[in-house]
Design goal:
about 190 residues; mainly beta; Deoxyuridine 5'-Triphosphate Nucleotidohydrolase, Chain A; 5-stranded antiparallel sheet; 3 helices; 15 strands; about 35% strand; globular
Length: about 190
Amino acid sequence: MILSDKSIKESLRCRELEIVGELPLYIGPSSVDLHLDNKALILKKDSAEGIHFDQDPSDRFQEYNDWEEITIHPGEFYLLHTKEWIKFPRNIAGFIQGRSSIARLGINIHAAGFFDPGFCGTATLEVTNFTQVPITIPAGTRIAQMVFMEVDKDVMISYAEKKDSKYQGQKSPVISKINKDYGARN
C-alpha cells in the first residue's frame, strides 16, 4: 500500500520515518519531493578502457563539488544526490523517480529505484541528458520524488542489518559497488 500525504506526515511526526534536510519538505498527495545537492561524480569522457563489473570504477569518475548550478551535457552520465537524508523503519520501503517536470526537459533521472526497509542515507541519482543541448539545473531544485509503501510485516533482516549493505549511510553520490559482488581485482 502506498502511503498518502496524511500517512507520510503521521509517520514523520511519530519519527517512524525520518527525512532530514535544510529545505522545507514538499509533500504531495502520495510522495515527497527531494532536492538536488551540490555534489556530483561525472563519468570521464576519456575512459577508453570502459568499465568492468569486477573492477572498482572510482578512477573513471571526476568529482565536481560545491556548485550553485550544474550543466548536464548531451549524452553524458552524472551521479548526483539528494540533500535529504532518509531513514526507513522496518515496515516501510520506498522508490524514487525523477519528477515529470524535469523529464519533460529531456533529463532522465533513474535513481536506482528501490529503498529497502532499514536503509538510511541520501539518494544517489543517475542522471543523463537525452537532448542535443546542454541543460543547467540549480542546486536545491526539487529533482525527484520518493514514494513510500508499507510492507505487509516488519522485515526479518533490514537493509541496515545485512552484511552486504553497500550503500548504507551514504552522504554524497556513490559510484557502483557492483565489483564487490565479484570480489574486486584492484
